[in-house]
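Escalation from tier 1.

The customer reports that the assembly of two entities below gives different structure tokens on two consecutive runs. Tier 1 could not reproduce it. I'm attaching the input and our single run for tier 2 to review.
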Amino acid sequence: MLRKPTHRRRGKSEQIELNLVPILDTMVTIVAFLLFTMSFLVLAHIESPFPVASMEDLKEQVKKKPLQLTLTLREKEAQVWSPFDLVPKRIIANTAEGIPDLRGIRSVLFEVKNKFPTEQKIVLVPGPEVNYENLILIMDTVRLIEKTDPPVYFKDPATGQDQVAKFLFPEVVFGNLLGDM
Amino acid sequence: MARSRGIRGRSGRKKINTGGFDLQLTSMMDILIIVVVFLLKTYSVSTNSFTSVKGIQLPYTATQETPPDGLQVIITPEAITFENERILDFVQSASAVGTTEEPSYAFNPTDLDEGGRRIVPLFDALTKAREKSELLRVQSSARDEQGNPLPFEGVLAIQCDKRVNYDTVRRIMYTAATAGFRVFRFLAMKKEI
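Tier 1 run:
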């Protein structure tokens, strides 16, 4: 008489049921924690000081003749110039949509940066009609060097070695805050 | 199959139906893992308490610097809010009333002085905030090297709707400067790079 077949093999192939309930509890707790502590309003900032100049500073400036690179934004054009004529005046027409030609401005500013690599400051003179969105775009354009931009080298005065500039003109000052409305 | 369809098999079927209900947790786990991964990828924690107002449209900036906490003024096309308190409403231009065109807003002439440069209600609010901050610094135990109270930093964060013109921003900066604020932080939404 044949023996009854063993159930051992069948028992081995049975799947073990993983208890998912505690893992699920942990997951739900993590999701709740992340949702509660998450900040949905992710802000960044661009800093600009209020221009303050005493008469002594002005006299000193006239003696030294700094670059004082200025970007004036008008209704139909943008102008890059220096009050002491250290760079030639350049006029960049606005795009067909009536907004400043950011690419054009950027290429002119790169030319200036290559000529004055240690210069950090730029004076911004926007017209009253420029909206805040364009103002932020302009500030980004004049401040930042993107990864795709050509590198700008400058000699570090402390070490005397060539370094790559991380920013174009990071110090933005508004030049017409005290002018007429 | 034939057994379950037959009358004899009915008792077995009943047993299955009335037995304990096994919830399929695997698919739920899959969903939760996807949600957790998504949240971790987009997770950001803010160290400041800046809030916003309803309807404001903030522009995007490529700058990645996170603003530290501080006093904040919010400008929408309709009003100016300082530290969650609405301090000024713009006046809607008469030409836009009753038409479908986008309304334009302007300052009420009585809210301005110094030749239209300074916004009076904002100046009052900012002066109060500066005085309060200076008083707190005097009362605080923190002192500089000479033993004097720490100076007022004079930093103002400006959160502005993207449609607002520089004309308005300029007035706000001028007003803040006359109230003792010397540094401005322009806030915008951080663009993911």
